[in-house]
């Protein structure tokens, strides 16, 4: 596959290309977007501080800003392949450009994405089922509550990867080194303890097949903010479309600790 | 030394004891305090997000809150040994209780403290000069700017520990495992590159003696917010007095990543 730089990828999206971003610009961090009115920004910033595993902030664009060093020369309203518009917590539109929806008072939160640690897992010889099977990662709403902050509350959403029993400890060790992009798993094994009754029916993304010795391993997921928007119903919210992430100029390795 | 629980230590301070907290309640995280009016809270929360090495947030008490799970059953206005009051960036008072200064609209930020990783360094056989020499850690204002956010900007303040050359790599490895409490060093060696002209004249704390093979190692410091308050001049700010920290109920090991 041809490898483009993050800015070249963003230029393609700005020009109209709509595609999931998994595997693009390998080695560079991708990010979830959530933009909220300034009046809700303190509450969400506090929510992210209190819930660093599902909402690890890579950057924040203040009201009136549409670019940042994470997307040098770019525009947050156009440089993601696809956007979603929420009013009062309801998904009301999806489009490749968010410029018409944008307002001067919006604050844009860029939230880390597990694509970063998936590369590290693969580099360490751990296969990622949903990549091997050509599917989107399976994600589940849990019965675990996030820590509320101001007007924001809602359920923790997790992503799940089947990991061979002999590699679960390695998967923990490797992803623990990336606290800025969801970090260590939040749960290993028994899905029922999270309120997940059927792994074959994820709430977001696609189901994946298990091998005989695979253990389900659950990580906090960057889709949590969308579940929180649905639960907390801010007047306006703009997000990326799932799987269609912002490709940033930050290298994955920037977020690794020993 | 008698070992009290964090809540027992806080009760002594609430009853009027004024003492530096270094070495008290070993194994439990201590925290810097900065309380600001709600109108400045978003800007400072964003400042902390952008400057996680000097300002790693362990918790935030929203306006009207005076306790939190970090100080269960406690009161942030009384449970620190000594407080400082700043008006328009100027230090105007110091007292063992902040209740008379407190306002309903204050938001209290609890910021991680390097005492947490000092314990880990000592456990790994690395001696801490300022502890061995019975002094406060030396701290220096640098010529490195923090990343501004809203009304807040100012210089990075660093703490310095002389580390034997053969142990510098270990000190990096060990402190890197604590990204929530300043993490890895920001600079190793040559003080001049940070704009520090004389290690024997720190801007805060005490100078320490070097052994022959010691290298100066610099970590981002939780006193940075006080330098930022001086530079940014919010109308009101309340902090702890340097060295007189909040002793929290959170275990140091909570903040360790592999």
From TrEMBL, chains A, B:
InterPro entries linked to this entry: D-Glu_cyclase, Putative_hydro-lyase, UPF0317
Organism: Corynebacterium nasicanis
SUPFAM superfamilies assigned to the protein according to its UniProt record, in alphabetical order: PSTPO5379-like
EC number: 4.2.1.-
Family indicated by similarity: Belongs to the D-glutamate cyclase family.
Protein name: Putative hydro-lyase ACFPUZ_06200
Entry keyword set: Lyase
Superkingdom of the source species: Bacteria
């Amino acid at each position: 596959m041809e490898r483009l730089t993050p800015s070249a990828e963003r230029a393609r999206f700005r020009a109209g290309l709509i595609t999931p971003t998994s595997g693009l610009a390998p080695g560079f961090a991708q990010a979830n977007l959530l933009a909220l009115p300034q009046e809700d920004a303190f509450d969400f910033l506090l929510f992210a501080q209190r819930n660093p595993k599902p909402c690890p902030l890579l950057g924040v664009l203040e009201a009136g800003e549409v670019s940042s060093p994470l997307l040098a020369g770019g525009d947050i309203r156009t440089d993601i392949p696809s956007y979603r518009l929420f009013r009062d917590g309801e998904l009301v539109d999806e489009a490749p450009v968010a410029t018409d929806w944008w307002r001067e008072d919006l604050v844009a939160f860029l939230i880390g994405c597990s694509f970063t640690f998936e590369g590290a897992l693969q580099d360490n010889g751990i296969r990622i089922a949903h990549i091997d099977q050509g599917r989107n990662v399976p994600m589940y709403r849990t019965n675990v509550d996030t820590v509320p902050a101001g007007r924001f509350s809602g359920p923790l959403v997790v992503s799940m990867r089947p990991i061979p029993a002999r590699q679960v400890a390695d998967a923990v060790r490797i992803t623990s080194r990336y606290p800025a992009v969801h970090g260590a798993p939040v749960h290993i094994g028994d899905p029922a303890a999270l309120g997940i009754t059927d792994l074959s029916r994820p709430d977001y993304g696609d189901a994946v097949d298990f091998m005989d010795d695979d253990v389900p391993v659950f990580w906090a997921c960057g889709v949590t903010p969308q579940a929180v928007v649905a639960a907390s119903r801010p007047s306006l919210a703009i997000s990326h479309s799932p799987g269609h992430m912002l490709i940033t100029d930050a290298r994955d390795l920037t977020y690794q600790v020993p």
